[in-house]
């Protein structure tokens, strides 16, 4: 192992040799003939003892996974990517091509002022990349190219001064100020000429009904100024002038709102003590007590069109078709004449008929050239790329408390963009995508590396504002491709030492932390271990995983309540309408997968199967929709909960990760040993693996989980390797493996891998039988609240009741301990059963039925083989009932063994005074006379 590199070593090194080549081969890069083989690949870390196969090497066969994926692929094909690009183009002052932003978290009117906008485009790029890698469909590659090309143009535009965006005006050409561009026109001093009388006139075409967006604002600050706005708080135009702040304003208010997307003419005249406001040539307001004039204001610091001196006011969104200033008050007739003939002010006159550049000529003869500027100046580094200004990143550096209305996880959004670009490059070998990604890394390094350690620790410890998602993992991948020392140094700048040190010491500090803010951090830290050899990263990640699974895990595999973690082993006490944020499952799957590549502990794949087959599949609605991915945010686990597949205002983080999950279902079905000696079959799923290095394909033919087993067929040449088949922990009886019809040697043990080592030949067939049983999992803090599992499939009760449903399950339990005989299968609906008139269905079915993920277990009387003894089922102080203790001895080799168990338990309970002698004999007699399912 390489000598560990400390953060300080990395930061202080001026030059560090590239540690990883940009392109390498291995099991992870094999591609099937059906897909285009990418030439850009991530080199597998030396620390990995297993290697994943790329998505193109594993094709999905017909089944529940393929059905869900097809719905998402249709969404990927049908959604207009120009809508996603709208916020990026707007931020750069480019034409948005008439596209409308998606809204929700991706719009300026969404939650927290749209402070997270841009993140969804990264998710979408990853989805498109995975879709192309899986299917080879050129349409997805073309869409990737469109997005990457547009982002390249955006970055180039951000690198230079803002440029005029010409549109059709009232008279010829006008200049558009796209909403979200943060651009304004800066007029030089002298534009008012110190006049005591004045006329201000402008042609405007507002495109958004923002209150207080300025047509003009000339002043020093929020004390001394004059302004004209298209809409005041009442929605009508207003002109005001003051030398004493807003409380001393002398103003003119219009009477009706200006129409949107139409040209309107606004004019203000000041003469003596009279001010007059005109809209489209008609007087709408007059104030004869306006004593302030431009001359009274004196020399002003700023003369802005489109920008306000009040920082909270929006920048004007729309177009300017002309702006003129006269040194006298025009009469009503003259104002009326301006409606049909373009005027020319004698103090300043701007036609805005330029079609390029960033300046506007003054045709008054005074040479007062105006300049197009950004309110935030411009990027601090040429690699900057975002859908909003750099201001959120800047403000984060001085924040001491979280406020997502000011700063909402800017490095989280940067992660999504970076990840999407890396995936685009790896899928299509588009050098532009890697250049954009590398530039982002360079910019972040230039921004963060000068900051003191204490500042970084404070930033990353902030809830929400300091959230950075999986950026460390993405930066490590970037470093593996570029070899730049700065990129590896950058990854370690995101060390959150308090969290790492606590988890490395196995100290559980998760109570009260935001779950999804922290889960992806550890995936990044494992990748830092890969890059640096620093053991604390890997140790912290492994210990962290054990703190979540199973101690903060719901039956479906999800975690968090209201996005946060509570105390360890509090499950029943946290059930609510906002449990199991879908992003958490997505990120725990990534972490589990990565840990398994390092250490083949079956618990990681046990969790992977649980969360993938239940929460992740169940989070996708089984309905086509080109406009929405139809994925949950929260999955409420309260009784009667109905899943919401169009959460919040849309374009949320969970919809983003949901798009990704649904296009990579096959990514962990198979892994290969790093030395090629073994093939791990982790999931039973209809699929075909093309293992190019071995010259074979392995096909799983199954309808799992509707089928309780799978058949694997090897085709191609001769190859020697160990086939390692996962024996699920739920497969407690009957798991069996045959090779070419003959039983394989060895005894499968639940919760391990069963190995078949041989030289494989074309046509060899392996049959795996994995019988399902119905079992329950109890909430640790309330064992009477339980989830039902049929094999790996979580069954939910479909019922509109909003209180917990009560069920007994021992009534017809089998000698094997299987509780399924107590339920009745539903004809024609695999995995559906009924109990006491209530239907139970797989959680993975994406319906809008009200469901009960947890039910209340109630076994009021002792019943065996549907024979009711009439004896109440007694319980101990800890809640354990007599029937619990009897069935804890399952499986039983026969009825006699069960009866013997009943006799032993009854005798003990009678001796302890928990059961009367007569009732005890009745219980034993009932068991002896009952008929049991084997």
Explain what the structure shows.
The chain is an alpha+beta fold. Helix content is 29%, strand content 21%. The chain contains 22 helices and 39 strands. The strands form six sheets. Strands 29, 30, 31, 32, 33, 34, 35, 36 and 37 form a nine-stranded mixed sheet that branches. Strands 3, 4, 6, 11, 12, 13, 15 and 16 form an eight-stranded antiparallel sheet that branches. An eight-stranded antiparallel sheet has the order 10-9-8-7-14-5-18-17, with no helix packed on it. Strand 8 and strand 9 form a beta hairpin. Helix 5 (138-159) crosses helix 9 (410-428) and helix 14 crosses helix 16. The radius of gyration is 34 Å and the shape is elongated. It starts with 6 loop residues before the first helix and ends in a 5-residue tail after the last helix.
Spans of at least 5 consecutive residues with low confidence? 1-37
Average pLDDT, rounded to a whole number, is: 95
Radius of gyration: 34 Å
Query: Per DSSP, what share of the residues sits in E-state strands of 2 or more residues?
Result: 15-25%
Could you give the count of β-strands? 39
- Overall geometry: elongated
Main beta sheet: strand number and arrangement?
9 strands, mixed
């Amino acid at each position: 192992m390489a000598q560990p590199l400390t953060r300080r070593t990395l930061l202080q090194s001026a030059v560090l040799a590239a540690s990883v080549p940009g392109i390498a081969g291995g099991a992870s890069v094999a591609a099937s003939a059906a897909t285009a083989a990418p030439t850009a690949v991530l080199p597998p870390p030396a620390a990995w003892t297993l290697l994943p196969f790329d998505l193109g090497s594993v094709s999905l066969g017909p089944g529940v996974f393929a059905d869900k994926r097809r719905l998402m692929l249709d969404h990927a094909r049908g959604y207009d990517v120009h809508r996603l690009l709208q916020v990026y183009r707007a931020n750069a002052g480019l034409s948005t091509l008439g596209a409308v932003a998606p809204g929700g978290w991706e719009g300026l009117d969404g939650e927290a002022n749209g402070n997270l906008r841009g993140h969804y485009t990264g998710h979408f790029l990853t989805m498109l990349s995975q879709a192309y890698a899986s299917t080879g469909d050129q349409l997805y590659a073309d869409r990737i190219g469109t997005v990457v090309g547009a982002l390249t143009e955006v970055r180039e535009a951000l690198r230079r001064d803002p440029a005029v965006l010409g549109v059709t005006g009232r008279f010829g050409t006008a200049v558009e100020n796209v909403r979200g561009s943060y651009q304004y026109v800066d007029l030089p001093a002298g534009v008012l000429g110190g006049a005591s009388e004045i006329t201000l006139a402008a042609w405007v075409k507002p495109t958004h009904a923002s209150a207080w967006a300025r047509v003009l604002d000339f002043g020093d600050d929020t004390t001394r100024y004059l302004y004209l706005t298209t809409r005041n708080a009442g929605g009508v135009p207003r002109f005001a002038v003051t030398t004493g702040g807003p409380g001393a304003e002398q103003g003119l208010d219009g009477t009706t709102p200006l129409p949107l997307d139409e040209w309107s003419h606004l004019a203000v005249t000041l003469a003596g003590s009279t001010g007059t406001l005109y809209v489209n040539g008609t007087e709408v307001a007059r104030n004869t007590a306006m004593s302030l004039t431009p001359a009274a204001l004196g020399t002003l610091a700023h003369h802005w069109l489109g920008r306000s001196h009040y920082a909270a006011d929006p920048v004007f969104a729309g177009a300017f078709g002309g702006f003129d200033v006269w040194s006298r008050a025009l009469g009503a007739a003259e104002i009326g004449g301006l409606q049909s003939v373009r005027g020319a002010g004698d103090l300043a006159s701007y036609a805005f008929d330029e079609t390029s550049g960033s300046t506007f000529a003054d045709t008054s003869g005074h040479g007062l050239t105006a300049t197009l500027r950004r309110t935030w100046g411009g990027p601090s580094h040429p690699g900057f790329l975002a859908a909003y200004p750099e201001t959120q990143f800047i403000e984060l550096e001085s924040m001491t408390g979280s406020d997502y209305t000011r700063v909402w996880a800017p490095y989280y959004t940067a992660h999504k963009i970076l990840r999407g670009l890396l995936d685009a490059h790896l899928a299509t070998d588009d050098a532009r995508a890697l250049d954009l990604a590398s530039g982002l890394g360079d910019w972040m390094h230039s921004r963060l590396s000068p900051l003191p350690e204490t500042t970084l620790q404070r930033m990353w410890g902030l809830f929400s504002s300091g959230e950075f998602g999986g950026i460390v993992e993405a930066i490590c991948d970037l470093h593996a491709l570029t070899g730049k020392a700065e990129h590896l140094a950058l990854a370690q700048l995101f060390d959150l030492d308090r969290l790492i040190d606590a988890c490395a010491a196995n100290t559980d500090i998760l109570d009260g932390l935001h779950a999804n803010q922290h889960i992806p951090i550890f995936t990044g830290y494992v990748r830092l271990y890969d890059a640096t050899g620093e053991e604390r990263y890997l140790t912290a990640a492994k210990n962290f995983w054990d703190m979540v699974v199973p101690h903060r895990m719901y039956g479906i595999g999800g975690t968090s309540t209201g996005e946060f973690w509570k105390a360890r082993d509090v499950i029943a006490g946290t059930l609510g309408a906002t449990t199991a944020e879908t992003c958490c499952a997505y990120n725990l799957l990534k972490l589990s997968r990565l840990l398994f590549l390092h250490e083949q502990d079956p618990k990681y794949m046990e969790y992977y199967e649980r969360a993938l087959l239940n929460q992740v599949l169940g989070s996708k609605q089984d309905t086509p929709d080109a406009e929405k991915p139809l994925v949950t945010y929260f999955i409420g686990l309260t009784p009667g909960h109905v899943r919401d597949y169009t959460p919040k205002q849309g374009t949320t983080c969970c919809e983003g990760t949901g798009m990704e999950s649904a296009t990579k279902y096959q990514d962990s079905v198979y892994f290969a040993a790093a030395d090629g000696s073994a093939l791990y079959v982790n999931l039973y799923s209809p699929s075909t693996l093309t293992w190019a290095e071995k010259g074979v394909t392995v096909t799983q033919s199954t309808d799992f989980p509707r089928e309780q087993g799978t058949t694997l067929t090897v085709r191609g040449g001769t190859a020697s390797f160990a086939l390692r088949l996962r024996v699920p922990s739920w497969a407690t009886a009957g798991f069996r493996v045959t090779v070419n019809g003959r039983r394989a040697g060895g005894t499968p043990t639940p919760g391990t891998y069963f190995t078949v080592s041989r030289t494989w030949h074309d046509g060899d067939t392996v049959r795996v039988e994995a019988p399902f049983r119905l079992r329950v999992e109890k909430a640790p803090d309330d064992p009477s609240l339980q989830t039902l599992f049929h094999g790996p499939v979580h069954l939910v009760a479909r019922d509109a009741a909003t209180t917990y449903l009560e069920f007994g399950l021992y009534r017809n339990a089998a000698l094997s301990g299987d509780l399924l005989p107590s339920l009745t299968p539903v004809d024609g609906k695999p995995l559906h059963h009924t109990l006491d008139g209530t239907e139970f269905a797989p959680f993975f079915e994406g319906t809008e039925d009200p469901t009960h993920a947890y039910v209340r277990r109630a076994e009021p009387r002792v019943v065996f083989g549907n024979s009711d003894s009439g004896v109440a089922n007694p319980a101990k102080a800890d809640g354990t009932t007599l029937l619990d203790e009897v069935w804890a001895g399952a499986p039983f080799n026969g009825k006699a063994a069960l009866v013997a168990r009943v006799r032993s338990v009854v005798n003990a309970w009678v001796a302890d005074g928990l059961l009367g002698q007569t009732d005890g004999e009745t219980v034993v007699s009932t068991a002896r006379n009952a008929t049991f399912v084997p």
